[in-house]
Fold this protein.
Amino acid sequence: MGAGSGVRLRGIFTAAAVTASAVILGAVLPALAQPAHAAPAVPAAPAAPVAPAWAPESSAAIHPGVLLSSTGGGGQCTANFVFTAGGRTFLGQAAHCTATGEATDTNGCTSTTLPLGTEVDIAGGRKATLVYSSWATMQARGEKDKGACSANDFALVEIAAGDVAAVNPTMPFFGGPTGVSRSGLPKGAQTYTYGNSPLRGGVNALSPKGGVSNGDTDGGWGHEVYTVNPGVPGDSGSGYLDANGGAVAILSTLNLAPLPVSNGVADLARALAYANAYGGLGTISLVPGTRAFTPNPPGVPATAVAVPAGPPLGG
């Protein structure tokens, strides 16, 4: 199934943002002179980056679901998951959150976007920096895959070194993620998400929700998801979990057809593989949550996370 008619869901709210970067310093030890006839010294393996000690979920200021704002365009979006690479820590967002065109500009290979280094504000945190954008990367590479151009909508912002101790990787309400899901969202698969758009007026009951997939779009680069309470501007980039708690997708568009008020989501496994191949950050890994996944979180009405009753899924 091809992509439906959709619009991007970055927020339409103005917010100031500023920049920060974390510098990783390496130490090189001088080699010691060896005595005559001594066996050659075996170089020591480089020390592996020390994994951060995550903040308790109850007190973490930065986590999946926080609001992100960029300067010079874009708007407010929702962070999806926490990632690491080479001792650096990132929040995931949608690439279109730093777009400068219209909401109807959905082709990542041709739509205008802000460059790497763009300042990003994390609600509750210090300054952050855009360090990867699938849109910028596809344009630099001259990407020709139409599915990727349509649905590869993933970016990373680097969290300031001084804020890493305030991070927890757990999805609000549901827990998890348990890892990256490789199974996608086939038609009829249930999924769970958390959006944090300011349009919800701070009503937490409207943020966690369940949905059902209408199957793949764009050759598997994306999926179409229906929820009773659809993603709205400001929810863009929010993460989706599969039925086992695996991180499976990222909110990208609000579709008007073929399934009214459905959402287009980017497949995370494909988007992450692309970032690892061409992003220049080294091996990017998703950080699992510190609390077990549950499809029925306490305090959330069962109707909010149940499979929606309609409209009927398309063919």
In short: The CA atoms of residues 119 and 129 lie 5 Å apart. Confidence is low (pLDDT under 50) at residues 12-40. The chain has one domain: 5-15+58-290. The two ends are 9 Å apart (CA to CA).
